[in-house]
Amino acid sequence: MKNIVFSLLMLFASAGAPAAVIGFDDLPGDETEVIPDGYRGFDWINLGAIRADAYPGSGYAAGTVSYANTAFNRDGGTAAIARMGGFDFVGAWFTSAWLDQELAFEGWRKGELLYSTDVSYVLDTVTPRWIGLGWSGIDTLVIYNSSGTQWAMDDFTVPEPASLGLFATALAGLAATRGRRKARR
Question: Which residues form the signal peptide (predicted)?
Fold first, then answer.
């Protein structure tokens, strides 16, 4: 009985656990530099970080929803975020840097397309837009835009790895306890 109660407590504790939010604020914000591969466990293809105050009145300033920096697609084209072993993508805030545009997304796993947005998301330069996709089990997130110009992305959100481990441990504990109870019968 103690094991069941303990496992249930762990399960409930993990359910409300926070997500990991990558705000890019610990990077220098030098727009000439790429976000280095391995930053926060991801590879960042065609992405840099820029300070919110670099271009006052731009979508970079409006799109920085956390403290100081936002990520952006450096050459204005397609960008991608990848992690060996995969990840779940909850969502992020997006704003167009210079002019209204549309974004579309794809989620890939081992070279196979798992997810694709059926619609494009319209961005402006004034109001950050939360794009929550809730995709699980991808190893690459590809972001396409319609304009060929830059967009800003902030608070890239994935489930907290510790929360997933806690949840898995709780489920394993429940399964083990249930198995022992069946064996006694």
Answer: 1-19
